[in-house]
Amino acid sequence: MLLLFFAPKLGTQEKISYGNEKIAFYGKHQAGISTPMQKNIYFVVLDLHTTDKDKIIQLFKDWTDYSAKLVEGELVKKRWPECSLAS
């Protein structure tokens, strides 16, 4: 009886499957908090060369659009030639 108590329950261990599942970018909860861990993660460092608030806001709007497309497996079109991510 003691052995059964400490034995792992069958079917309760999470299977890791990369690349087959799509998680919605927009939704009730942020992806990555209550969803399975992703295979890859990317960080971005921004070196802004402007203090124009409207340009900075647009940058983050574009970045959000790009992120949503990448989550869906879509390619992002090139908007800024100097941005290697957009290629």
TrEMBL record:
Designated name of the protein: Ferrous iron transport peroxidase EfeB
Keyword Ribosomal protein: no
GO MF assignments: peroxidase activity
Domain Dyp-type peroxidase N-terminal: 30-75
InterPro entries: Dimeric_a/b-barrel (IPR011008), Dyp_perox_N (IPR048327)
Record keywords: Oxidoreductase, Peroxidase
Superkingdom field: Bacteria
